[in-house]
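worker-3 :: picked Transcriptional regulator
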Amino acid sequence: MNPSTPVTSEDVARHANVSQSAVSRAFTPGASVSLKMREKILKSAAELGYRPNALARAMISGKSGLIAMLVAYLDNQFYPVMLEQLSRRLQASGYQVLLFMTEPGDQDEVVGRILQYQVEGIVMASATLSSDLARECARTGIPVVLFNRYVATSPASCVTSDNIEGGRLIADYLVRGGHERIGFIAGAEDSSTNRDREAGFYNGLAEHGLAVFERVVGGYSFEGAAAAARVLFDRPDRPDAVFVANDHMAFSVMDVLRDELGLRIPEDVSVIGYDDVPQAAWKGYDLTTVSQAGAQMVEATAEILVEQIEQAAVRKRAAVLPAELIVRSSARIPQG
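worker-3 :: tokens ->
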């Protein structure tokens, strides 16, 4: 065979003495073909140097097998971990993942470019899209899942943890630990995660007859959280505890409290975060936090996407997974 001529599936079929449809099934995840037949075809393909053309197959079948993931930032350690797990889960179901980055406010433009790749589904993590574009995706049969956030008016599906209950658990824990001046460092004002965590936190304080001591915005950034910590704590009437809206910011807050202000954690101030990223368990932080049940969120996201792609039926679904308080040493432990 001329080495400059691409090897085709027909060549493999002739070499293996099987039908072309058998070759196609051998290279299709989940297709019906015996193990013996698959091994025979793969052996012939290896000898001929054949590689399936995924783009050509997509043009013929109308199915690309591609899922787009759109993220606005990866600074928060929660997202790289979740995106890796979700990518592996989708690959196990026969789909490949394309990662796209965006800036806040540019999501719709990026999604417009994503659709040129003939993707079969879209996951939005740390990003949202307009309701109009979500409706357009639904109209064309492309399911969209918002991961770790929701927009009530959007037709897109969503997967979150119970952020309201998580916030309430934190308030209850801090009050039972004997704290009275409890501050809050907020994330992004326009994010559903921040709104729900804050609402649950305030409700939990109210159950004990308390209100938040002071609120400062950290914007879900490391630098913003450091600045917020200085505003809250570099003064005589400082809080005796603080809930920080995610772990990424909580690490920055703990660095400022200990290294700049000379405060002891938890002797002088208790700190609680949210997400339970791997670094939260590191000895240097040992952060008390709320776990988001990430594995369950990944599974729910994959199930929604795969089901709606394979059934060719896009509809809005919402999955809310339980939140769990993870007790470590950064917050005073309630007695009794």
